[in-house]
Amino acid sequence: MNEIQPTPQSPQQHTAEELLVKLRQKLGNWVEWGQAIAYLQKNGYNPQDIFEATGFEPIQQNQVIVGSQVYSSMEKCGSSPETLAYYRTKSSDVLYELRGLTQEDRATTADLTYQYKLDADVVRDIAKAVKDYSWFPNLPEGFSKHPGDAIAYQSWKYAKQKSDLTERSRLIAKGLRFVYSETARKQLEQLLMDFSVTSKVAAPILPFYRLESDEDLPRMLPVVGELPLTPQELKAVPLITEIPPFRIVKFAGEQAWVALPGWKVLLNAEDPVVVIGNSDIFPNPHQNKIEPIMIVIDRAQREWDISNYFVFDNGESIDFQWFETAPNIPLLGKMIVLVRPKKVLDEDFTKDAWQIDE
Predict the structure, then answer these.
(1) What is the mean pLDDT of the chain?
(2) What are the residue boundaries of the Rubisco accumulation factor 1 alpha-helical domain, all occurrences included (predicted)?
(3) Is residue 320 in some structural domain?
(4) Cα(5)–Cα(327) distance, rounded to whole angstroms?
(5) From CA 187, how far away is CA 166, in angstroms rounded?
(6) What is the band of 42 on the pLDDT scale with cuts at 50, 70, 90?
C-alpha cells in the first residue's frame, strides 16, 4: 500500500512559517519584526491572522512596519552609527512619527531625536516643523537646512507673533535648545531685545457645505441605451447599490460616480475629482463630531495662492495643506469644496408618503 506523501510547501510558505515562529517567540529586534510582518501581509496574511498567530495587535503591526521603513531610510541616508544602534532595539513609536518626512530628513531628524533622547509626543511636533520647513523654495534668511534650524525657525516665527512675554520666552527657549547654526541662534537672540509683534497670517476658512435637502442629493441611475432596445439589453444592466451617506454608485468596470448639485464652484471646475475622507483630517475648532466628507479637487488648478488649500504628494499618499508661502513641491490640485452628508433624523420614516402627508 502506497503512503500518501505530504504536499511540499512552497518557498514562500516555508518563509512565512519561519517568520511567524520568530514573531511569536519575539526573536530578533523590532526592526526585523516590522520587516517580517510586512512580508507576511504582502503574501496574503491579514493583520487579524498575524495577531492570532503571534500576539502582535494590528496597531502594533502598523507601527513596527512603518518604523522599520523609516529605519531603512536612516541606514540608506547616513544616520550616525550611534543613532542606528540606539533605535535598532527601542523606540519604534519615535521613528513612526518621522514617516511623513523625506528619506534624507528622516535620517537627519532621527540623529537629532537621538541626541536629545526625545519621546514620541515631542517628535510628532518636531516632524511637523521639519515637514513645513521643507516646503520653502528658499531657506529663510539666517537658517540652515538642518532639522535643528527647522525647529528654531518655527519657534522664532511663533515667538514673533506672541505678545505674552511668558509664551514668547518659552518659544525662544525652545528654539535655542535645538538651534544648529550660529546665524539662526542670532535670529532668536534678537527677539530677546526686539519685542515687536508680527501679525499672524490666518489660514483661509475651510469651504464646507452641508447637504440639506433631497434635491441636493440626487440619485444616480444607470443608462441602458437609446431606443429601440431589446429585453435582453434591458436585463443586461446590473442592479446598482448606493453606498451611504453620499449615495456613491460603483460600476462593474471599477469606476464609481457620485452626483453633486450644480454649484457654481463645481461648474467652473475644469478637472474635478472626488476623494472620500473624514472631517478630522482638517483643522476645525467648531467641529462637534467626526463624520465622512467628500473632498472635491480641481486637478487643473495647480498654481499656488495663499487663499486656498492644495493637495500634494506626501510620499506614500496624497495629503492636503494650506501653504503660507509658495512651496517647492509640485501641487496636484486645489481643494474647492468639502461636502458634509445630509442630516437624517429617521430615513425609514421619510420613505412612507402617508406619514409625510400627515
Answers:
(1) 86
(2) 87-192
(3) yes
(4) 64
(5) 19
(6) very high
